[in-house]
Amino acid sequence: MTATPHQEPFDLNHPALRARAVAAARGDAPFDMLITGGRLLDAVTGLIREADIGLVGALIASVHAPASRTDAVEIIDATGAVLTPGLIDTHMHVESSMVTPAEYASAVLPRGVTTVVWDPHEFANVHGLDGVRWAIEAARVLPLRMILLAPSCVPSAPGLELAGADFDASIIAEMLRSPAVGGVAEVMNMRGVIDGDPHMNAIVNSGLAAGKLVCGHARGLEGADLNAFMAAGVTSDHELTSGADLAAKLAAGLTIELRGSHDHLLEEFVDVLNDLGHLPPTVTLCTDDVFPDELFESGGLDDVIKRLVRYGMKPEWALSAATFNAAQRLKRSDLGLVAAGRRADLVLFDDVTEFRARLVISSGRIVARNGAMEAAVQPLDTAPLTNSVKLSALTENDFRIPAKGARVRVATIDRPRFTQWGEAETEVRDGFVVPPAGSAMIAVAHRHGKADGITHIGFLTGWGEWRGAFCTTVSHDSHNLTVFGGNTRDMALAANAVISAGGGMAVAVDGQIEAILPLPLSGLVTDASLKDTASAFADIRKGMDKIVDWKPPYRVFKACFGATLACNAGPHQTDRGIADVLTGQVLESPVLETW
User: Fold this and answer.
1) For 404-421, how does the pLDDT look when each residue is reduced to its tens digit (9 = 90+)?
2) Pairwise CA distance, residues 127 & 560, whole Å
3) Percentage with pLDDT > 70 across the chain
4) What is the rounded CA–CA span in Å between residue 500 and residue 519?
5) What are phi and psi of 483, to 5 degrees?
6) 3-state SS assignment for residue 496
């Protein structure tokens, strides 16, 4: 597919529109809209100055001296407000907020976010290409600008897990032909790229051939591995692990998508940037994953900006990263700057500490005012996303590991997030392995109907003592049914509650369901309101606090959703067994030896 003059960013180049804007800028014709009395934060210089802004259609026609023009069809009084470009979130997943794209747009637009870069790899891992097509259509009818990326890793670790689809380079190339798709989404199969795997080489090269972005996921990469990853054509990273990692990635030349979903690292990142004494032009901001209660209570990218400022970043730096730097990264010269000839994406903030958006304008149209939507939000039919959990009810024996003999030596998965292999000895009772002392169980069952739904079980250490069970179909990135627990009764109960709901999350304790959040669309989202979804998710959090003691920053609730992310280094439980991307090994059973 090729772009037409009616599609962004080419829509601004219509000769009649430009001619009208030129005439209005000269003073020979009135503006469609004139914003007066505000202070403009210049995203390039970082300076704040008084200025009035005249708009013609989707174009900024003039940025001029205050009170020098009064001729306009509509005049907006911006007295006391700070004017900035619309905020740009450079990497995010709508599905992580567990609501539809329409509901997500209604949540972030009133907060000043006018553009998001959406990697729909959650929908892709469940529904394949049909999931991406659905996302494109859902985005197309929304007032929030959504630049989609082609999911590069479906599944994230081929051979180590099974998802609902398997994308090769031909499918990536097909997606990239759409003008709605801005590039290749985060390349998560790091080892495949570094080791020259033909499958991953072809995917990366598809993005390069299309002349579009190739985005990265470079968690833990350094030295020769990082150079190899970048030499292949990958140009960004959001998987930063420390301030030193940020400094190294900046020095390497990667575009940084500084994400808000790991708050415990943000203060350290701010210190690194402050020590530099300037904001590198390669620093952008993103949310990555925002849970529904967080989105409802605190917001999206606006909340990331607010926290960075709270941790000591200059407001003008945070806003430049979220506007001008982001637009440069996206090769969208129409965005990210309040200047004549650019797109009229504007936010009127009450201040630059709390960042409350008084008015939000997208392509010259008021879309939100005082925290509420004014533009219509059109949802897309969600029927294609239903019936994605293809599993029968499970029994307690599905969460037990059979073994002969009296004792066994088993492999364990040690530590949340930064996992490593371990071993333990334990007994066999009534023909089943007794979980090693101090361990929790994790079970994963394929739920997409591409293979058997047999549970594969592992033992986790460093996860504390579990007094119940948690089941979720939100389990990055293959999103198979995943169950954590301390006993088989509650694990089966939680699993069956989720299966019956068509996907979602459930907490079980003492033979009772403590909390449940049905997510019947793809097993990832719901068409309920954000408010109701946030409330139900908050109940899940409360239920989890009853059954396990958290120990931040790594043993946290959020770690449950990444425990099966097999593309990251170290052992991870998947629907095929315990997988290690560094060795390519998959243990179908954790039992190593019996006697």
Assistant:
1) 999 999 999 999 989 999
2) 22
3) 99
4) 11
5) -130, 130
6) helix
Q: How many CB atoms lie within 10 A of CB 261?
A: 18
Nearest alpha-carbon partner for 313 in 346, 280, 341: 280
pLDDT digits (tens, 9 = 90+) for 82-110: 999 999 999 999 999 999 999 999 999 99
Please, are residues 286 and 89 in contact by the beta-carbon 8 Å criterion? yes
d(CA 410, CA 548): 23
Name residue, tokens 């060795």.
Answer: 583
User: Using CB atoms within 10 A of its CB, is residue 124 exposed (0-12), middle (13-18) or buried (19+)?
Assistant: buried
Distances (CA, A) of 295 to 103, 262, 272, 535: 11, 15, 27, 11
**pTM, 2 dp:** 0.95
User: Is 76:361 a contact under the CB 8 Å cutoff?
Assistant: no
Distance from C-alpha of 339 to C-alpha of 422, rounded to nearest angstrom: 58
37-68 pLDDT, tens per residue?
999 999 999 999 999 999 999 999 999 999 99
SS3 446: coil
Choose among 591, 562, 589: nearest CA to 157: 562
Q: For residues 484 and 459, is the Cβ–Cβ distance under 8 A?
A: no
CB 473 within 8 A of CB 497: no
